[in-house]
Design a protein that fits this description.
Blueprint lengths: L1 H61 L9 E4 L4 E3 H4 L4 E7 L4 H15 L6 E6 L3 H11 L5 E3 L15 E5 L5 E6 L5 H12 L5
Parallel strand pairs: 3-4, 4-5
Antiparallel strand pairs: 1-2, 1-5, 3-6, 6-7
Helix pairs in contact: 3-5
């Protein structure tokens, strides 16, 4: 009888230890997942901050630069024109290329449409794609309502080398200022920028 009681007690101890070990392992897994998630969020935050810093540097270096009067653009019909003939008054430009992420372009266009569709400030899209066929496809895909032009070469801005789309103002002398990168992690920055430009010039 004592031997039976000892065996039962031993089995109960083993079962309880197994249950405790299982619960402890589960808690450790949760803790590890939390640490990993925190590390990922910290890394993402660090990358976002670094991206903003880099963009601000490039924006400052691009400020006040003038595009060459020889810059040629093509509309969706394939018509070719000097950019200087198109810009007759200060114009808000959204610049993106096929190298930028689709979701970033789409988000930037949505903010532009929501904020600047009823403004006196002229708005245009200046993109860079390999062909006009692709430009037409992009225009139809995103439902772009603003004039859109393609330029086959990079612009002479430091900001044009960054991996993000951006906005700026260009005047009739092709002088450019007011650069603002689209930071996908912090879209409120772009929204505030566009609100500031377009809300003051509502029809």
């Amino acid at each position: 009888m004592k031997h039976f009681v000892w065996i039962v007690s031993f089995v109960l101890v083993v079962v309880l230890c197994a249950i405790y070990s299982f619960r402890l392992q589960k808690q450790l897994n949760v803790a590890n997942e939390s640490i990993l998630r925190y590390g990922q969020e910290s890394a993402l935050m660090h990358n976002s901050v670094q991206n903003i810093i880099n963009c601000r540097k490039m924006e400052a270096q691009s400020e006040g630069l003038r595009l060459s009067p020889d810059v040629i653009v093509t509309n969706t019909k394939g018509d070719i024109s000097p950019l200087v003939d198109i810009i007759t008054t200060p114009t808000l430009v959204y610049r993106f290329t096929e190298m930028h992420c689709n979701s970033c372009i789409e988000h930037g266009l949505r903010l532009l449409k929501e904020t600047c569709s009823s403004t006196k400030l002229p708005v245009m899209v200046l993109c860079r794609y390999e062909s006009i066929r692709l430009v037409r496809a992009v225009s139809n895909s995103y439902g772009i309502e603003f004039p859109i032009y393609n330029i086959s070469e990079r612009l002479s801005f430091p900001l044009d080398d960054m991996s993000t789309s951006y906005f700026f103002i260009i005047d009739e002398n092709l002088k450019c200022h007011g650069f603002q990168s689209f930071i996908k992690e912090v879209p409120i920055i772009t929204e505030t920028y566009l609100n500031g430009l377009c809300s003051s010039q509502l029809n």
